Amino acid sequence: MTISAGAKAFLSLGIVAAIIISGFYIVNANRDGSEGERGLPNFSSEHQLQYFLALHGGAREGVLDYDQMISQAEASGSTTYTKTNTQVAGVDEMDSIETDGIHIYIATRDRVNIVKAAPADAMSNVGVIMVKDLIKTSAESWYYVDGIFLTGDELVVMISIYDYGKGEGVYSLYDYYYGYQARTVLCLLDVSDPSAPALVDAKGISGYLLSARLHDGVAYLITEQSIWDGHGTAMPVIWSGGSYSNEPVSSIRYDPNATDVRSYTNVLSFRLSDHEANVTSVLMGYGSVIYATGENIYVTSTVWGTTGNWAFSDPTTTIYRLHLDGLIVTPNGIGQVPGSPLNQFSMDEHDGHLRIATNSGWQSGENMVFVMDGTMNVIGELRGIAMNETIRAVRFMNDTLYLVTFFQTDPLFIIDLSDPTHLIVLGELVMPGFSSYLQDLGNGLLIGVGWENGTLKLSLYDVSDPAEPKILSNIITPAWAYSEAQYDHHAFMYDAATGTIGIPVWTYGQNGQGGAFIYRLEDRSLTFKGMVQSDNSTSARCLLIDDHLYTISSTTVSSWSSIDLGHIGSITFREADEPVYFVCGEISTVLERGEA
């Protein structure tokens, strides 16, 4: 069929008119709506979504451009044990190690091993959950376990799957990287009999996993998915049991003021009690930092401007608030601040306010703190902190902020937030090196895990007088050493009852070795007690069960006396030569319960 020049001109005018009309509607959409002040509207049709992306979406080079788009520590009985170190009380974070005080669950890429830890001198391997037994596999794709939750007799396993080729309904940020497309699957297992774990249900959502939380019996998986599938606009895809479907367009929210939309942020909420699930998707820029409370999930999207000649201007961060009400996740707030956050500890919700610390980048190096009200408007700010330095650690505690910056020395700033409209620096402490993680120990004590002269350092601070913070202990490792706890707070173990601190460590050099460093907090002083080793090949995570210390490496669980660190026993739960980092195999688009 041919189209005359006159018809082409008429069609072009029609398309332009449609875009103008739709664009007017989108730009002027009501941001308040029924979802609360400054809520995000939803799309009424796929055509409206396409027009929105035509006006606001950042086209991926080689796929679509603008014109192409237009055209188309808890007690259990008498047993006490440490649990995952989390940011917010009552909001669990996925981890690779979990325990119920009797068994230890260990996630290592393609499986979850179950070790009976008690008694400490007679540990045994009681079960293993292989991902290939939860979903079909062959030789075309790869997958790994992101992390786990353990609550009662239920184990939640989060799995990232990268399907090769287009696949049925599968889209992801990586669809143009080597042909792989990402999705994330949540598997719920009954582990009431740890020797025979049973798959109960499985749900999935397209995109790669950004983060996950568990609160009040509901698991929340947050994924990021590209808006492109290599051929056109992708749609979020939902897996449930033995079927999959595209998410309805009417349930996708968007930011009318966004200028560079490139991805969906998908939230899969799953209630453990009745296996009901819900999905919410928001069109936004690439997500970067996730912070969650029991009531809200905050997702940041940072945009760096350009000034030409490959130079970047200072960044701007948009913060999206997603309100949690059981399974229902509702975008109901959006705000914006200069700079970019370091990590999830850069944000904190307190007394109805969101506080966030950001850095403006390498050009001016300004560090800033902002306070936002319930409508996500900035009501207080503090700028110009440690100019030309970078933020290395952040910790909000009620009305106080502890902020570490670094260039040549390590200033610890104590900032008063009690008046959200008037922020004040109360005190400052300067020392060599820097802390990259801060942990509250209570009683006016703060511990920092970081670096000095290229090696591991633990610093104990007395912050009981905010105007005059003091260093009580400063322990620097003699040999070059590194710890996961410097950048992953889940690797930091602290038992307040005994004052025991354990962190995984790798000492590198000619005689490098792995294990865990154990410290003891006594009489407001920090003491290094020694190094324990599960094996010499890797560092080891720590946990306490009653008066026994356990270290978990990539292959071995070892038990020790928590008093004198005497070795009690060890057990190998997987062989060192088994593949650990990833597993190849095709993942079917339909989840098969219990079938290999």
- What is the 3D shape? globular
Helical content class: under 10%
Largest sheet data = 7 strands, antiparallel
The whole-number mean of residue pLDDT values reads 83
Going across the biggest sheet, name each strand in turn. 15-14-11-10-9-8-44
Percent strand: over 45%
Straight-line N-to-C gap: 50 Å
Structure, described:
This protein is mainly β and 596 residues long. Among the domains are: 31-284, no CATH class; 477-582, Lipocalin. 7% of the residues lie in helices and 51% in strands. Strands 15-14-11-10-9-8-44 form a seven-stranded antiparallel beta sheet, with no helix packed on it. Strands 3-12-13-17-18-16 form a six-stranded mixed beta sheet, with no helix packed on it.
Sequence-ordered SSE layout with sheet pairings:
Blueprint: H1 5-27, H2 46-56, H3 66-71, E1 74-76, E2 79-81, E3 92-93, E4 97-99, E5 103-107, E6 111-116, E7 124-130, H4 131-134, E8 142-151, E9 154-164, E10 180-190, E11 198-206, E12 208-215, E13 218-226, E14 237-240, E15 243-246, E16 252-254, E17 263-271, E18 277-284, E19 290-292, E20 296-308, E21 311-325, E22 328-338, E23 347-350, E24 353-359, E25 367-372, E26 378-385, E27 390-397, E28 400-406, E29 409-416, E30 424-432, E31 434-442, E32 445-452, E33 455-462, E34 470-476, E35 481-482, E36 493-495, E37 500-507, E38 513-522, E39 525-532, E40 541-545, E41 548-552, E42 556-561, E43 567-572, E44 583-584
Parallel strand pairs: 16-18
Antiparallel strand pairs: 1-2, 3-12, 4-5, 5-6, 6-7, 8-9, 8-44, 9-10, 10-11, 11-14, 12-13, 13-17, 14-15, 17-18, 19-20, 20-21, 21-22, 23-24, 24-25, 25-26, 27-28, 28-29, 29-30, 31-32, 32-33, 33-34, 35-37, 36-37, 37-38, 38-39, 40-41, 41-42, 42-43
